[in-house]
Amino acid sequence: MGTAGITVPLIQFKQVIRHWWYAQCCPKLKPMFQAVLAIITWELWKRRNAGKHEGSVSTNKVIHEINKKLHQLERVRYALMTNIPLLRLYIIQYFEGYKPIFITTRVTWQIPFHGWYKCNTDGASKGNLGPTSLGFCTRNNEGDMVYAMEVDLGVTTNVVAEVKAILQ
């Protein structure tokens, strides 16, 4: 029995985070749901520090800052999606109803000009900082492979792998 006869189930902050992190939601919204935890925690921490050192910050200001940061994150993460609404309820409806339009372009490999060689490169990382490797092959103007190589780069990023593939 709690204060004033109100029973409140005790739940720890880490349990709230765990439930929120693993919440069942639209897959398009999963990264945003997970980002909400960090943003809310950050804004509460800022409010706590402002209250301790600078005076108080209103709850409405905290909510506004959370919404603003989420909207900015959505605009960056989903840059190709236009007209993302500002209000949380409408944002969820917007993402759940969003159907992307895919435009595909067929790309084919072309034989190099007479007397030229063509080098195709690729660098890849399993994770982004993770085990990486690069590979490339060079073909002559008849399409015959004249040289190929692969290199294990150890643990680094995909950008490093791509750049090193070009340098090789």
Automatic annotation (TrEMBL):
Domain of life: Eukaryota
Gene3D superfamilies: Ribonuclease H-like superfamily/Ribonuclease H (3.30.420.10)
InterPro entries in the cross-refs: RNase_H-like_EbsB-rel (IPR052929), RNaseH-like_sf (IPR012337), RNaseH_sf (IPR036397)
Leader peptide range in chain numbering: none
Coiled-coil residues: none
GO molecular function terms listed in the Swiss-Prot or TrEMBL record: nucleic acid binding
Name by which UniProt lists this protein: Uncharacterized protein LOC104247791
